[in-house]
Amino acid sequence: MSEPNLINRDEEHLRLLTIFFYVCAAMAALFACFPIFHLGLGLVMALKPDVFGLGNNQPPQFLGWFFVAFSSAIIFAGWVYAAVLAWAGRCLGRHKHYTFCLVAACMACLFMPFGTVLGIFSILVLVRPSVKSLFEPGTKSAVSP
Question: Any residues with CB less than 8 A from the CB of 86 and at least 6 apart, and which?
Answer without folding.
Answer: 21, 22, 25, 26
